[in-house]
Amino acid sequence: MPELDVAPADEFPPGSHDDGPLCEGDWDEETCTVVCPRHGSQFELSTGTPRSLPATEPVATYPVRVADGMVRVDIS
């Protein structure tokens, strides 16, 4: 399984930023969803399926894990 190191896990503080990509949107740990900071659409984190408009197409998702303090993404 090809994996890439993204960044140390401690470089990902809680919270989000306006006018940023989906990875910077507010997320709800309880429902496992994220909200796009630009358009307000809500997506399921596990599948990328949109749960609200204006989004109608799913976004790509990738398996992510933390190993030895490093966030790693599976790109296979």
Describe the structure in your own words.
The chain is mainly β. The chain has a domain at 17-61: Rieske Iron-sulfur Protein (3-layer Sandwich). It has no helices and six strands. The strands form two sheets. Strands 1-6-5 form a three-stranded antiparallel β-sheet, with no helix packed on it. The protein is globular. The chain starts with a strand and ends with a strand. The model has no long low-confidence stretch (mean pLDDT 86).
Describe how the helices and strands are arranged.
Layout: E1 3-8, E2 27-28, E3 33-35, E4 42-44, E5 64-67, E6 70-74
Q: What labels would you give this structure?
A:
Rieske Iron-sulfur Protein; globular; 76 residues; 6 strands; mainly beta
Q: TL;DR of this structure?
A:
This protein has 76 residues and is mainly beta.
What is the CATH homology-level superfamily of the domain at 17-61? Rieske [2Fe-2S] iron-sulphur domain
Terminal-residue CA separation: 6 Å
Top CATH class of the domain at 17-61: Mainly Beta
Q: Strand arrangement, largest sheet? A: 1-6-5
CATH architecture assignment name of the domain at 17-61: 3-layer Sandwich
Q: How many helices?
A: 0
Assign the structural class, choosing from mainly alpha, mainly beta, alpha/beta, alpha+beta, or little secondary structure. Answer: mainly beta
According to CATH, the fold-level topology of the domain at 17-61 is: Rieske Iron-sulfur Protein
Sheet with the most strands?
Answer: 3 strands, antiparallel
> What is the ordering of alpha helices and beta strands?
EEEEEE
Give unreliable regions as ranges.
Answer: none
Strand runs, count:
6
- Report the sheet-strand fraction: 25-35%
Please, what is the average pLDDT? 86
Helicity range of the residues? under 10%
- Shape assignment: globular
Determine Rg (CA atoms, Å). 13 Å
